[in-house]
Amino acid sequence: EVQLVETGGGLVQPGKSLKLTCATSGFTFSNAWMHWVRQSPEKQLEWVAQIKAKSNNYATYYAESVKGRFTISRDDSKSSVYLQMNSLKEEDTAIYYCTGYYSYWGQGVMVTVSS
Amino acid sequence: DIQMTQSPSSMSVSLGDTVTITCRASQDVGIYVNWFQQKPGKSPRRMIYRATNLADGVPSRFSGSRSGSDYSLTISSLESEDVADYHCLQYDEYPPTFGGGTKLELK
Known about the structure:
The complex is a heterodimer. Chain A is mainly β.
């Protein structure tokens, strides 16, 4: 059974940092291109970041809205993908999902940025 | 960025209806369009990939089609479990972009 479990969300003040973790099982993680996708309180989905596999040199891509503030990474030995979020803004408030191939999805984790 | 203009934003439907939701891409995205279903409090579920391919486990009443830059999701003979939000996604070019979503509601 495929499982993706996101952790690390919470309430944080603007300008602070948070690191999300997505632990996976049930599929060949090392080959998977992994993404973070977020959903605003208005229910709009937004792609955030992608990391490709080792065979693709772990290439990373970012939405313009998070470039320079967020960093996606992975640890194939732990079948996990991460999202380091720095300099958080109120507009980063959303449910954050990790997804593999857009086929496998986690349950999502809430991030609230507010003073 | 490529814009995916999704319509309608909401739709009042009846059980047994045939429902069609459309996304228009602002530029060519080829076959690289997915459709997702999302129920309240749940994660998106991929229903259609590469514009016309049914994802594993998805009922055959769902179908995807393409006409030029218009991509459609059709649900034939709507069942109660199909009442949900639907989203399209283009992943031909970075950044991948989603449509604005369509909310199906029962009359």
